[in-house]
């Protein structure tokens, strides 16, 4: 075949160059696409990695929250005399934040004593304590501080109880038959109602071995106890709650101002000792009701009425002696509401009183 002419060869050369250039441009575009895809894939990998980190953080936080809730439930019933602190979780290497530091029992006692004096001073100056705004504000401050002290000394679980041990003397007619021993148990009112009265009664019981006393009055409506003490004052004010009236079996403070002498009602005395009773000037004033007898009422309390005589008994041989008053608190190691243990006095307050 004959060779192509020079013109044809030039056209073929240009066509070849154009084809090569086109192939180069396509290759460049392909590389650009591959680079974009690689960037997108890298971004997706980074995004996935960040999401995994967030998920891991959320899992750790959920675990810590569960741990703290578990510890809080375990410590929801603090021991008498104070609240336990959170324990360090050695496995996680994590120490929960410390609780707010609580006041010592001694400082709380000082606070209550100071507020008590304020209330007594105000009561001596106002006409009707129960309607005076300044008096009621001071009384509330005393009550709030006393509730805090009760928790520090006796624990947060209520009600508190007092076991009363009696000794009957040979002057009672049934002595040969029933002997000298008797007892009953008082369950105290909730501190949310009458904290000042409850705390004072627990102080009477706590110091009973130093003071002592006996049932020395037999009346038709009450059996009254004298308390041999000069350290425990009468109540700073007539603390009374309509939620805790003077029903039969209840325990109240005697006198106006009330205490530390106390009595057991052997009939319903809601009117005799309730608001407006025993005087006409103040329709709000009442005796403080502080608890009720839940055990030994028929066997021991009503037995006192068999002692010869009535009214205040001048013959001490007829008195029914209270040998001991033992404070009982709910067992912090038990979930049962009726499990009680003897209260152990913290060393911090053993020398006080």
User: Largest beta sheet, briefly?
Assistant: 8 strands, antiparallel, barrel
What count of helical segments does DSSP give? 7
Classify the secondary structure makeup into a structural class: alpha+beta
Q: Compute the separation of the termini in Å.
A: 136 Å
Summarize the structure in words:
The protein is an alpha+beta fold and 353 residues long. The protein contains 7 helices and 10 strands. The protein has helices at residues 6-74, 105-123, 133-154, 175-178, 195-206, 208-211, 297-301, and strands at 161-167, 181-188, 213-218, 222-227, 250-253, 262-265, 289-295, 311-312, 320-330, 340-342. It has an 8-stranded antiparallel beta barrel. A hairpin with an 8-residue loop joins strand 5 (250-253) and strand 6. Helix 2 runs antiparallel to helix 3. The longest helix has 69 residues, at 6-74. The chain starts with 5 loop residues before the first helix and ends in an 11-residue tail after the last strand. Residues 8-12 and 77-94 have low confidence and may be disordered.
Write the topology of this structure.
Layout: H1 6-74, H2 105-123, H3 133-154, E1 161-167, H4 175-178, E2 181-188, H5 195-206, H6 208-211, E3 213-218, E4 222-227, E5 250-253, E6 262-265, E7 289-295, H7 297-301, E8 311-312, E9 320-330, E10 340-342
Helix pairs in contact: 2-3
Describe the structure in brief:
The protein is an alpha+beta fold. It has helices at about 5-75, 105-125, 135-155, 175-180, 195-205, 210, 295-300; strands at about 160-165, 180-190, 215-220, 220-225, 250-255, 260-265, 290-295, 310, 320-330, 340. The chain has 7 helices and 10 strands.
């Amino acid at each position: 075949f004959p060779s192509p002419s020079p013109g044809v060869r030039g056209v073929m050369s240009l066509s070849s160059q154009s084809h090569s250039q086109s192939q180069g441009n396509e290759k460049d575009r392909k590389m650009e696409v591959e680079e974009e895809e690689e960037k997108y894939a890298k971004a997706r990998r980074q995004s996935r990695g960040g999401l995994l980190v967030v998920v891991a953080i959320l899992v750790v936080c959920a675990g810590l929250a569960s741990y703290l809730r578990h510890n809080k439930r375990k410590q929801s019933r603090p021991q008498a005399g104070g609240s336990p602190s959170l324990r360090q979780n050695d496995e996680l290497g994590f120490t929960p934040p410390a609780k707010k530091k609580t006041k010592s029992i001694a400082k709380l006692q000082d606070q209550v004593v100071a507020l008590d004096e304020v209330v007594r001073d105000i009561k001596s100056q106002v006409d009707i304590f129960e309607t005076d705004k300044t008096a009621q504000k001071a009384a509330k401050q005393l009550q709030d501080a006393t509730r805090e002290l009760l928790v520090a000394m006796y624990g947060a679980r209520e009600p508190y109880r007092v076991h009363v041990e009696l000794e009957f003397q040979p002057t009672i007619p049934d002595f040969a038959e029933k002997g000298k021993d008797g007892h009953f148990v008082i369950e105290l009112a909730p501190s949310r109602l009458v904290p000042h009265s409850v705390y004072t009664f627990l102080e009477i019981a706590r110091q009973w071995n130093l003071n002592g006393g006996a049932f020395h009055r037999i009346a038709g409506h009450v059996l009254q106890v004298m308390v041999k003490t000069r350290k425990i004052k009468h109540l700073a004010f007539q603390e009374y709650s309509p939620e805790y009236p003077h029903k039969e079996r209840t325990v109240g403070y005697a006198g106006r101002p009330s205490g530390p002498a106390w009595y057991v009602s052997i009939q319903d005395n809601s009117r005799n000792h309730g608001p407006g009773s025993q005087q006409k000037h103040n329709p709000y004033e009442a005796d403080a009701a502080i608890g009720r007898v839940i055990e030994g009422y028929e066997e021991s309390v009503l037995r006192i009425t068999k002692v010869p005589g009535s009214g205040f008994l001048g013959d001490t041989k007829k008195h029914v002696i209270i040998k001991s008053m033992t404070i009982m608190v709910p067992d912090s190691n038990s979930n049962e509401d009726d499990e009680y243990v003897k209260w152990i006095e913290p060393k911090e307050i053993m020398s006080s009183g």
